[in-house]
Amino acid sequence: MVQLKDHGRGTEVIIEENPLSRWLFTNTKSAWIWLILRLYLGYSWLTAGFGKVTNEAWTGAEAGTALRGYMAGVMALAEEGGVAGWYVWFLDNFVIPNATIFSYMVAWGEVLVGLGLIVGLLTGIAAFFGALMNMSFLLAGTVSANPIMLLIAILLILAWKVAGWYGLDRWALPALGTPWKVRNK
Q1: 14: Cβ–Cβ under 8 A, 6 or more apart, which residues?
Q2: Does 167 fall in a domain?
Q3: Could you read off the pLDDT of 75-101 as tens digits, one per residue?
Q4: Cα dist. 179→19, 60, 103, 142, 175 in Å?
Q5: Whether 174 contacts 124, CB under 8 Å
Q6: Residue 110: CB partners within 8 Å, gap ≥ 6?
């Protein structure tokens, strides 16, 4: 259904959402789907992050060593043309000189994204930061599970209103001012 509204400054065209996307992204009955995806993605991030925060080369006395090693591989791939030039510049001028800081950010970021997704707290924000990390890894030439994780994260971002319904978002989002309304049919 298309609605036209005139606000005095021009006509606004409002196109109704199709029933499937409305059900998936705004109906709490679809929340079980998002719960499954959230738990899978959250577990993936949490286990990857836990492995890093308990590793001296990521967050211990030798913090930054593992990231520098990873960056050496990325730079070798870049020489073969496998990494975008602007991203190589960013890594070379920003990430590598600050490898220790980025090492902590990656390790703890993975843990926090994983926990946020598992407990369903600020699910859309956690999924966004997970997608940002996945995109960074993909730009660096690391494929592995990153495309699947990125796709799931994008879907969770789109479903932010109901993705954390079976989680802490059910109470946290209304407390933060999310305008949820219950419709009686």
Answers
A1: 2, 3, 4, 5
A2: yes
A3: 999 999 889 999 999 999 999 999 999
A4: 21, 43, 37, 39, 10
A5: no
A6: 45, 46, 48, 49, 52, 133
Count of domains for the chain: 1
Query: Measuring CA to CA, which residue among 176, 178, 163 is closest to residue 31?
Result: 163
Specify if 24 maps to a domain.
Answer: no
Q: Give the domain range for residue 61.
A: 32-174
Continuous H helices in the chain: 19-26, 31-53, 56-59, 65-79, 85-90, 99-119, 123-139, 146-158, 160-163, 169-176
With respect to residue 118, please indicate whether it lies within any of the assigned structural domains. yes
Please tell me the pTM assigned to this model: 0.89
Collapsing DSSP to helix, strand or coil, 146 comes out as helix
Band of residue 5 on the pLDDT scale cut at 50, 70, 90: low
Using one digit for the tens of pLDDT, what is the confidence trace for 107-161?
Answer: 999 999 999 999 999 999 999 999 999 999 999 999 999 999 999 999 999 999 9
Whether 124 is covered by a domain: the verdict is yes
